[in-house]
Each structure stands twice: as structure tokens, then as C-alpha cells.
Design a protein that fits this description.
Shape: globular
Helix content: 25-40%
CATH class: Alpha Beta
Length: 314
């Protein structure tokens, strides 16, 4: 039980803060997009990301808003495979694909074994297949899926924050040891891991957030990750607004994201990306926002430091 500021941060409290879920079609992905990404070999190529409509993750992390795009009832048989096929028919032809299902791809309740086998046959022709998973679900089934796809499998795992106290307060239900152990397991079996790292999770001030994001990058690379993605924490899930009211959470700034991205790139330990989704939320200056977005995007693709944006808001 995590008690702070007079209340307990647990599943019950997190669920009580929620609003309504979005209405979804179980036979369609709730979103898909094609974006450019730098590959481990240094080329810049298109990657298709399919956001599969699926059941909710069994873990209720404090900062998560993915539950908004999940369904409460079990999906009809082969619905996930149908969603994927629909996306592939509507998207441009690419060689790399991400399958994100608002939870863990290797959770049998989310992706039953039979359907996982069908998906493996669908993605067989891709050069790279990236899925997401909580460390709890990373086991030999990852290797089986990799072998059935016959492709380069990568697994994205939420490290979130290398501060043990913050990780516990996030209700993540894992330890840093769990993350390192499962990352090592994947690496031993020639499966690359990318870590999701939060910039300014609750309970950290801006300077502390920058410090711990950098330490999280260090931890991820030391654990064997090949790639880190820095995600600025936003509100919108109910619990974050409650914490913001109590002064326990604040949005990070775009300049802090630039700072952490620069640090990660300078390490030259692996690829480091900054998530630019809804980046305008974190900008307080309309004059330089577009230039900062362009700079971050260029650093993501080139993996080198680009000249800083000059603006009076600095």
C-alpha cells in the first residue's frame, strides 16, 4: 500500500478517479499511423504502428491513460488478427511494424495463444516486429512467437523511472530488478528491448525529473536495452488531475525533454527518442514551439545534437 498526502495510491483509488472509456469497434484498431524512425543500423525508414483495440491491462499504473481505449468484454475470436489485417490493407507498405495493445502482448487473456499464432503468420514478411509487455509476461513464449514470425522481434517495456520509491508509487507492480532480469533474458536470446522512460512522473519537481530521467536512461542501457523512448507525462486519466490539485504533479517543459534527449544521445549507448505526441501541451511559448518540435524530430532521426533554438523564453 502506497500512502502519500493522506490517501492510499492503489488500484481502488486509481479506478475511482477515472472517467468513461471511449466507444470502440472490436473489429477495428482504434488508431494506426506511419512515421519515420532511425533503425539500429542507422537507416531512416517508415514504421507502421497499429494500436489494437483490446481488453484492459491487469495492472493499473498511476499515470496510464491507455485504459480509455480498451473494451470490457472479451473480444470475439480472431478479432485482433482482423484488426491487424484491416490496418495493413489501409496503410502504406512498410518493413517494420509495432503492435501496441494497451497492455502486454504476451498476456494470454489479452492475446490468446491461437490468435497470437495467427498474428505471427500475418507479420512473417516484416523485417522488424515490435510488441509491448510488462516484465511479468516475458518468458519462453516470447521466444516461441519470435521463432514463428521468423523476423527480428523487439519488446518494448515500461521502465518508467529508476527511482525505486517513485516506481512503487506508480503502482507499476515491478521492481528495477524485475526489469533488469527480464531484459537480460531477452538479450540472452537475441531479442532487443526498448525502454519507455517517463519525464516528470508525479512526486518529482522539474529538476528532480530531469535527473531521474537521465538516471533511468543509464539504468536501461546498463541493463542491456538497445533503445530508450522518453515520454513526457501528461494528465487526462483522472488520477493525475487529483495529484495536480494537491501539488504532487506538474507537466514537464519542452526544454526539459530536449535536455534529457541530448543527454541520451551524447551517451552513444544506443538509440534515444523523445516522444513528440501532443508535444504542444508542454510548450509555454507559441513563438518557438514549432522550431523546438522540428529540432527534437531531427535529433530523433539523426541521433546527434542539433543547434539549440534561440528564443526569449529560454
Amino acid at each position: 500500500m502506497n500512502k502519500i498526502a493522506g490517501f492510499d495510491i492503489n488500484d481502488e483509488w486509481i479506478l475511482s478517479c477515472r472517467g468513461r472509456k471511449n466507444k470502440l469497434d472490436p473489429f477495428r484498431p482504434y488508431a494506426w499511423l506511419v512515421e519515420k524512425e532511425r533503425t539500429p543500423s542507422g537507416t531512416i525508414e517508415d514504421v507502421l504502428t497499429v494500436f489494437l483495440t483490446n481488453r484492459e491491462c491487469p495492472f493499473h499504473c498511476l499515470m496510464c491513460d491507455l485504459w480509455k481505449n480498451t473494451v470490457d468484454e472479451p473480444l470475439p475470436g480472431e478479432a485482433l488478427a482482423g484488426q491487424l489485417e484491416w490496418a495493413l490493407k489501409n496503410a502504406s507498405t512498410v518493413k517494420h511494424i509495432k503492435l501496441y495493445n494497451s497492455g502486454s502482448f504476451f498476456d494470454k487473456r489479452a492475446v490468446p495463444m491461437q490468435e497470437r499464432n495467427t498474428i505471427a503468420s500475418i507479420v512473417k514478411g516484416f523485417d522488424t516486429v515490435i510488441v509491448e509487455s510488462h516484465p511479468f509476461f516475458i518468458n519462453d513464449e516470447c521466444l516461441s512467437f519470435r521463432d514463428k514470425t521468423g523476423t527480428d522481434l523487439q519488446v518494448a517495456v515500461g521502465l518508467e523511472c529508476a527511482n525505486p520509491r517513485i516506481l512503487t508509487l506508480l503502482n507499476k507492480r515491478m521492481t528495477l530488478g524485475d526489469f533488469a532480469d527480464r531484459t537480460g533474458f531477452l538479450l540472452d536470446n537475441d531479442i532487443f528491448t526498448r525502454a519507455f522512460i517517463l519525464l516528470r512522473p508525479p512526486f518529482l519537481e522539474e529538476d528532480e525529473a530531469i535527473f531521474w530521467a537521465k538516471r533511468s536512461i543509464d539504468f536501461a542501457f546498463d541493463a542491456g536495452c538497445e533503445c530508450c523512448t522518453i515520454i513526457p507525462v501528461r494528465g487526462g486519466n483522472g488520477s493525475m488531475e487529483k495529484l495536480q490539485e494537491k501539488g504532487l504533479f506538474g507537466l514537464p517543459s519542452v526544454s526539459s525533454l530536449e535536455n534529457v534527449l541530448e543527454y541520451g544521445i551524447e551517451k552513444q549507448a544506443g538509440r534515444v527518442f523523445a516522444d513528440t505526441w501532443d508535444l504542444e501541451l508542454f510548450s509555454k511559448c507559441n513563438k518557438c514551439y514549432k522550431n523546438r518540435l522540428d529540432r527534437i524530430t531531427a535529433m530523433n532521426l539523426q541521433q546527434r545534437i542539433i543547434r539549440e533554438v534561440s528564443c526569449g523564453c529560454n
